[in-house]
Write a structure and sequence with these properties.
With 352 residues, this protein is of the alpha+beta class. The chain is 20% helix and 29% strand. Strands 1, 3, 4, 6, 11, 12, 13 and 16 form an eight-stranded antiparallel sheet that branches. A hairpin with a 7-residue loop joins strand 12 and strand 13. The N and C termini lie close together (9 Å).
Length: 352
């Protein structure tokens, strides 16, 4: 008497509970492995070391125009003992502050404490500020007080919507990587070139507001803490980012017909202790061209107002480990299934 073949999709449910539990555990293990492989690059911050030559900390010693200064400023920037004010709450102001020491760290994290405040009511304030990691420094321009055709990374904290699109609330934080060939479109709030972003209520807060920018092993992660909860909230997380070493950190701000106070309280740079392959260590990181390996072009964000997408390739050993575990799981399930099937066949023969 011929037995009817059980469809493969239903095979697991036809087996004894022990077999199902074993296979479920294997599938759960594979899922956890895949999840950890995607997020393992985001560490808890224990292996970090403050780099004072790239940090701006009260009372801001080393800020000035002397040859020994580690930070230089331009425009309307005012340095006090409590804050660095890039612009005051006045119209048509531009200011910036830049680290004079190029950064040769391959993996780093910058914590920025800032304060945006002013007398303007809702939607009557602007324009915002930017944090930079670029080849150029002290280059005034139309993008929050700096050049639009930059080389490197820019994080924009835009407090005023110029595009007036109803699908995005401001203030809005976005990121852009540029090799000098793409200008930031200020009139469209940079939608055509942004890598991702999020809305964040950062203005006129009575508590401290923070932003963390992490670059490690080709992954850019931006977190914010603006709700006085001592808890980081993810804003941008994207892989495939290539940034060279030897660039400069800085911050700039601008006001137009509308205005705000844009204050930098601190910029703390941490070195991340991350292992690299011998090929990566031997590469000349100063020759890397700023770029992003995306699954889709940043210009597609025009039709995707959220601006959030990920393209994070797994490293070689993670792919190998994932495939090995998947293969082992398939083999185990096949062996268990064969044993169970054989026993059931032997048991069924007793009835014929």
């Amino acid at each position: 008497m011929a037995r009817e073949r059980i469809p493969s999709a239903l095979w697991l449910h036809s087996q004894p509970s022990v077999t199902r539990k074993m296979c479920h555990r294997i599938f759960l293990l594979l899922w956890l492995l895949h999840f950890s492989s995607v997020y393992s690059d985001i560490t808890d911050g224990n292996a970090e070391y403050l780099k004072r030559e790239h940090s701006l900390i009260k009372p801001y010693q080393g800020v000035g125009t002397s040859p020994s200064s580690q930070w230089d400023f331009w425009g309307s920037t005012l340095v006090t003992s409590q804050y660095v004010r890039l612009t005051s709450d006045e119209r048509s102001k531009q200011g910036s502050i830049w680290n004079t020491v190029p950064c040769y760290l391959k993996d780093w994290e910058m914590h920025v404490q800032f304060k945006v405040h002013g007398s303007g009511r809702k939607n009557l304030h602007g324009d915002g500020f930017a944090v930079w990691y670029t080849k150029e420094r002290l280059h005034p321009g139309s993008v929050f007080g700096s050049s639009a055709n930059f080389h490197g990374l820019a994080i924009f904290i835009d407090t005023f919507s110029k595009d007036e699109a109803p699908d995005r609330s401001f203030p809005y934080i976005s990121a852009m990587v540029n090799n000098g060939s793409l200008p930031y479109d200020h009139g469209k709030d940079g939608r055509s070139t942004e890598l991702g972003g999020c809305s964040a209520e950062v203005r006129n807060k009575d508590h401290d507001t923070y932003m963390a920018i992490r670059y490690s092993k080709g992954r850019l992660t931006i977190m914010v803490d603006v709700d006085d909860r001592n808890d980081w909230k993810e804003c941008i997380d994207i892989g495939g980012v290539r940034l060279p070493t030897g660039y400069y950190f800085g911050a700039s701000a601008a006001t137009g017909d509308l205005s705000d106070n844009h204050d930098i309280i601190s910029m703390k740079m941490y070195q991340l202790m991350v292992e690299h392959t011998p090929e990566e260590d031997n590469q000349d990181w100063t020759k890397i061209e700023p770029s992003v390996n995306l699954l889709k072009s940043p210009k597609d964000n025009i039709d995707d107002p959220t601006g959030n997408f990920r393209s994070t390739p797994l490293t070689g050993w993670k792919v190998f480990l994932l495939l090995l575990c998947a293969l082992l799981g398939i083999v185990v399930c096949a062996v268990v299934g064969a044993v169970v099937f054989q026993k059931r066949q032997e048991r069924n023969k007793r009835f014929y």
